[in-house]
Amino acid sequence: MKILKSYIVVLITALLSSCSEEFLDLKPISTATSDNFYQTADDFKNAVNGGYAGLQAAGLTGNSYIFGEIASDNTVAVASGSVTDQDEFDRFYIKTTNPFISGRWNDAYSVIARYNTILDKIGPVTMDETLKNRYMAETKFLRAIVYFTLVQTFGDVPLILKPVATPDEGYSFGRSPKADVYAQIEKDLTEAESVLPVSYPAADIGRATKGAAKAYLGKVYLTQKKYAPAVAKLKEVIDLGIYALLPSYADVFRVANKNNKESVFDVQYKSGGAGEGNAWPNSFAPQNSGNAVIAFGGDGNNQPTTDIINAYEPGDLRKDISVASSYTNAAGQVIPDRFIKKYYDVPVAKNDNGNNIPLIRYADVLLMYAEALNEVSFQPAGDAFTYLNLIRTRAGLAKKTAAEIPTQQAFRLAMEQERRVELAFEGYRWFDLVRTDRAITVLNSKKDQIRLVADLTANNLVFPIPQSQIDINKDKIKQNPGY
Amino acid sequence: MIYFHIFSMINYKPLIMKKRVLDRWVHIQLIRLGMIPWTLCVVLYGLTFTGNLYARELSNIDKNISGKVTDEKGEALPGVSVVVKGSQRGTSTNVDGTYQLSIPDGSSVLIFSFVGYVPQEKTVANETALDVTLQTDTKSLQEVVVVGYGTQKRANVTAAISSVPMNEIKDMPVSNVATALQGKIPGVVIQQNNGTPGSTPAIKVRGFGSISAGNSPLIVIDGNIVNANIFSNLNTNDIESMDVLKDASSTAIYGSKGSNGVILITTKKGKSGKPSVNLDVFTGFQQVSKKIDLINSQQFAEFGKDASNNAYLDNIKGANIADPNSVRPTDYLRYRYPRGEVFDWFNFDDPARVAALPYTDYQNEIFRTAKMNNYQLSASGGSDKARYSISGGYLQQDGIIRRSALDRYTLRANVEVNVLPKLKIGIGLNPSYKIQQEVKDAGHWADNAVVNSALSVMPMIPIYAADGSYTSQTAFAAPYNYPGITNPVANITEYNSQLLTTNLLANTFAELNLLKDLTYRISGNVNFSGNRRNAYRTSKMPLNQILPPSVSTGTAYSDQGLSWLFNQTLNYSKSFKEIHNFDVLVGMESTKFQFQDSQGTGSSYPNDVVETLNGSASGTTTTSVSSKVENASASYFARANYNYKGKYLINVSVRRDGSSIFGADNRWGTFPAGSLGWRISEESFMKRLAAVSEAKLRVSYGLSGNNAFNNNYPYVATLRSDNYSFNNSLVNGLAPSSLANSQLGWERSQQLDAGIDLGLFSNRILLIVDYYQRTTKDLLLSVNVPTVTGFSTAVKNIGRMENKGWEFGLNTRNLTKGVIWNTSLNLSFNRNKVVALGPTGDPIRSASGVGETNITQIGSPIGSFYGYKQLGIFKDQADLDSYPHDPTSRPGDVKYEDINGDKIINANDRTIIGNNQPDFIYGITNTFNYMGFDLNIAIQGTQGGEILNLSRRFFENLEGNANQLSTVLTRWRSASDPGDGVTPRANARTTGNNNAISTRWVEDGSYLRIQNVSLGYQLPSSLISKAKLQQVRIYASAQNLFTFTRYLNFNPEVSNYEGPLTGGVDYGVYPLAKTFTLGINIGL
């Protein structure tokens, strides 16, 4: 009996002691965690690379044509029928639930969180100080351009500069005034500008440079109508002496010619099935074109309007490089469909093209410089003419003279026209019109042609705040007027 | 001569027929229905023996015995089986209840058995006449039910436990046993949301328990917690019993795993005695249960033209309907419609051409009559020392969508050995192997999905081009910018995907009687599962907008799951003079699960000969990924039962669970429960109420938890790779992908259950009623957070939700002699309500496919549909001017209600527009037995649930570029022809926000289904005993015979985005089949 009792005791002990905390302490195997990351120089290299990758987010650059082109008089929405998400931009009845609206907001804050995390964690890390400073400068540059996108799109936006530690903290952020956001953008760019190198060795080409920071700063000043600082900053870009217009407009967009002398800052893409390809060439090719326009066919997005096709002056070399009005399909039928030709590659899979998306190229810098000069003071046949004519000459067009552009106002219109065709389909048109206070006038003058639902008003100059973000935080996040 | 009666349902008059005639009739019917020769062989073989019976002289006649069998009231019982124990010899009673049998001399034992009565054994001494009275079977309350880690007498159960009526599901020709449970158990919702052969239905016990943690009940087979796919591979005939634990007092012993209910399955075990061998075969065919009513080519021509013209008139100033295509602007090609410019026959303007338009019913092209065969052979037996049960099965089921098919091989072996007087050990093995030929059934046509493309493609588009290759709508689309809807037939034939699933469950146990009343049991199981999928899309496949040859692609996927479970229990069971009865259990359990997978893809195969990845062109896109996850749990538990004279019952239990899913701070949870029962019928004062044969009151309360979250490490902040390239060279990038929450812990639910079990008139009427109230709090939830955090969702414990309901189960034995007629009926009501949410109480809005479709808000059922309310259609300009509308609205567009009354229609006018949860669900099963015939009719349905039929955004978008439901024929055409007042005008460029999520897409999902009708005939033992057969039963069965519903799409049980937050959304799915089968059971 005694033996049996001890037997039972042993059993019960075994019963109750077979599990330990260690058994339950499991960590992810196939995923890195924040606990074991952000510790070494190598970690930050990956984190900063991930920061650049954030720019590829559809809401920031992939769908930028929705905001910059479809909303303007340049292009129309895809013929997607029952889905009116793009048509709402085209004709200005944008619903607060529009997925492109929430896409831009959500993607922007998602990558801002990456940048804030890097800047928050890199401080104490032991690593090469020069590299550390460069990583911080690159990150600030990236954060600035994302905030610039946000503030242009939505006006006042929450300004978040530290990682948000808990979900509940997310409820404490309201919309900061535009001026505060711009001040932070200028601060980040100014800090980045002072640290970033003028150029990189081959393996790092595509990272933010001093020139990119200066060019963005110039654009930010110009957007705020700070013309004198814009002139100064853009002149610094020119004076760096490393950028130039390529002789041929077509060469600027050729995949084989990426990161050329005209490229100031691009979002980098690479084809080849690694998930780093650019969708634009397929996205913009006509629907049902089969392989006739591009391999794997097109989605018919961002279709040029009659208005922009007519906007090219006779003889403008850029027209045939940028747009087409028809194609011949495999069955030999000529299909009268308009599409953008500017971005083209031969993909090995759909949407896997090697084309970079230019965010600032040198032609833009020169045009902005000319515009800023004109705003500071109109000078017949002054420097502003020189830079405008550099662009026109390359396009095979005659130089503009002071006789043709006799006033400051006339020069503004000439700039508007030149920017429209030079930078067509690069995502600037709508924001250019807003910046120059011309959006309402220009679009309303074509109301029927571009099928506006109603005359544009000042309310339309910023887009609505995503409904989902208002619904979740009603007290802090308020809608823009008119939506 | 023996006469047989056939019970006629229709005129209720017995029909008398000679046995010979009957045999011949059965024979002819089988040939007429003639399925596969195999079955016929078996049947013919049986019939040949029947013939031989008459031809041959019976040998070894030692003695004749005769007698009469009656019921308790002295009335004759016909059709009672009388068998000599230990032999095949036997007969059955005739119409006046008498029998005659020759038996071996000396003392023999006769077994008298009949459905609905307790079998009786009688020893024959010297008498030549033996009359027997059979007692009505009241075993439903004597039976033993399986409970967590043990069994209990039904009479002593104080919890809400439902036993599955196995006899009602035995003939259902289902490839998944869960399907057969539909409508059989009060409080259990089985939803067949997909008709793919072998697919597993969704199972919910007492409503939604959780928002985002799992909702599926725990599956326990023979005491082993297993994953749901083992349940789905189980053969109905291998199951001895199934019990569903519904309330907290019964599930709390499973702690965190039991909060969504527990299904306990006991498989058949060998019994000591004569071996028994059984063969079960059925064969049959399946057809699609419903086709969708679409428009034809001529109707399409009129409609398509109308849509283009309306868009043109809307958008172009000075447009005239007569303008030729060449005049219509090219910046929107959908202003144009076919007018013979490319293909002469493709002309919507020419009445003769329209009349001659070709027409293909694409539903006929993708669906087929599909065969289904099932074979199962089992053997069991043993001695006092060792018992065995072995069964092997093969199921072959073609899908009703062409090419889809399932082949399933299963084996099950259970062996138990008493190695020592006090030590019993056992082992069970359950390997299975499945081959599934997959078709891409659900999804968008652009992804080459079959159902959606068959319903969307214009009916005049041909399947093949002139050269015999596949064509598609793409070939006709470019001049009008129609969508390039893929070819439904090619989508089936040019995509080859096979999924091979191997599963091996092995379990073992040892049971040691330490003392007389003390038992120690140790058991464990290991489950290995492996999936392998090879998929290949050939170069002949037309893609969205691309005609063949297209780029071929291949995928190779494999995964491997390994889980083990180990538990030990000590059980002390003691009865003091049958007055004080104790049962105490303590135990521990631990589990671990590991899963890893890998996938490779290749493309640009030089030809379609080699489909594996090595056939893909070198240097083309080939990606490979792999990942690995694991989780673990550890638990301790205890339970005590006490009853006083079987009259006052008490049960308490507690379980403490630890899970690796949570961070160290909140890893452990404790889940107690208790219940009380009072068998009033045992009280002396109740004995006077003779009508009441059983009455028990039960009440239980308890806590259970849930951690079945779809993430193994939700508390950790994780990173994901987001790569980039510099100067055309790839670089690695990483970015945060989730927020950390070290506080994450158990979701808990409290459940109160009160029930009554009532048996009347010797239990001829059995009523079980339960009321329950279940509150789930600290919901483990992936909630929306402000995206300024950098994340759109975060995992939190928030909120509280309530499920309340009534359950009724009624079993009656309506007729107990002659014709036996039993009815079982169940009816369940569940009301779900969200009581609290998050710190601010903000609703959770959820998206499914097309933006926000569902909302979960305080005071409403979880996952209610969310959108606009359609008031009607704007009849004319005056109507449009008189009510707020979208800026793009025109007459003929949808009129939405201005909910907030601000004279503007915008996102703030969205509201709750429906709910997927039914008001009640029900099932009624009637079984009839007469003279060896049995008839089973099961009806099942749900009432009051709604469906958000988003498929109609394809088939009723009124754009004029894809096929449509016939509802578009009653669309708005003009102020004078306003149509049905619900369907808007045709328009190639939709205006008025017509296709927003609204009540226009919300449909009544109520249905009543004739779920199963089966007719069986048990060949009398007198005929088959000479063939050394124990029993032969043949049956014919129809499953899903008809569904009464107003729902427009295929299946009212659909839910594409299964999960409570987005339940009830239909976005196109594999339809259900109706199945007709013939089967035979042979017992040796």
How would you describe what is shown here?
The complex is a heterodimer of chains A (483) and B (1084). By secondary structure, chain A is mainly alpha-helical. Helices cover 47% and strands 5% of the residues of chain A. Chain A has 21 helices and 8 strands. In chain A, a hairpin with a 5-residue loop joins β5 and β6. Chain A is globular, with a radius of gyration of 26 Å. The model of chain A has no long low-confidence stretch (mean pLDDT 92). By secondary structure, chain B is mostly beta strands. Chain B has 15 helices and 53 strands. Chain B has a 22-stranded antiparallel barrel. In chain B, β15 (218-221) and β16 (224-226) form a beta hairpin. Residues 1-23 and 25-61 of chain B have low confidence and may be disordered. Chains A and B meet through α1, α2, α3, α7 and β3 of A and α11, β26, β27, β28 and β32 of B.
Quick summary of this structure?
Chain A is mainly α and 483 residues long.
What would the average pLDDT of chain B be, to the nearest integer?
Answer: 85
Strand content of chain A: under 5%
Contiguous uncertain segments of 5+ residues of chain A:
none
Q: Report helical residue fraction of chain A.
A: 40-55%
Report the C-alpha radius of gyration of chain B, rounded.
33 Å
Order of helices and strands of chain A: HHHHHEHHHHHHHEHEHHEEEEEHHHHHH
**In terms of per-residue confidence, which ranges of chain B show pLDDT below 50 for 5 or more consecutive residues?**
1-23, 25-61
Largest sheet of chain A, described in full?
Answer: 2 strands, antiparallel
Number of strands of chain B: 53
Mean pLDDT figure of chain A: 92
Largest interface by Cβ-Cβ < 8 Å:
A-B, 126 and 119 residues
Oligomer: heterodimer
| Main sheet makeup of chain B | 22 strands, antiparallel, barrel
List the helices and strands and how they pair.
The complex is a heterodimer of chains A (483) and B (1084).
Chain A: H1 2-17, H2 21-24, H3 41-53, H4 58-62, H5 64-70, E1 75-76, H6 87-91, H7 99-121, H8 129-154, H9 178-195, H10 210-223, H11 227-240, H12 249-253, E2 263-267, H13 280-284, E3 303-304, H14 306-311, H15 317-322, E4 323-324, E5 327-328, E6 334-335, E7 339-340, E8 357-361, H16 362-376, H17 383-394, H18 408-422, H19 429-435, H20 439-445, H21 467-472
Antiparallel strand pairs in A: 1-3, 2-8, 4-7, 5-6
Helix pairs in contact in A: 3-7, 3-8, 7-8, 8-9, 9-10, 10-11, 10-16, 11-16, 16-17, 16-18
Chain B: E1 3-6, E2 15-18, H1 19-33, H2 37-55, E3 63-70, E4 81-84, E5 90-92, E6 98-103, E7 108-113, E8 120-124, E9 132-133, E10 144-147, E11 150-153, E12 161-163, H3 166-169, H4 177-180, E13 188-191, E14 202-205, E15 218-221, E16 224-226, H5 228-232, E17 239-245, H6 248-251, E18 262-267, E19 273-288, H7 297-315, H8 351-355, H9 362-366, E20 370-382, E21 386-398, E22 405-420, E23 423-438, H10 450-456, H11 474-477, H12 488-493, E24 495-513, E25 518-537, E26 553-576, E27 580-603, E28 623-644, E29 648-659, E30 668-679, E31 692-706, E32 719-721, E33 724-726, E34 729-731, E35 734-736, E36 747-760, E37 765-784, E38 793-817, E39 819-836, E40 844-847, E41 852-856, E42 864-867, E43 870-873, H13 877-881, E44 894-896, E45 911-914, E46 920-930, E47 933-943, E48 946-949, H14 952-955, E49 1002-1004, E50 1007-1019, H15 1021-1024, E51 1031-1045, E52 1065-1066, E53 1073-1083
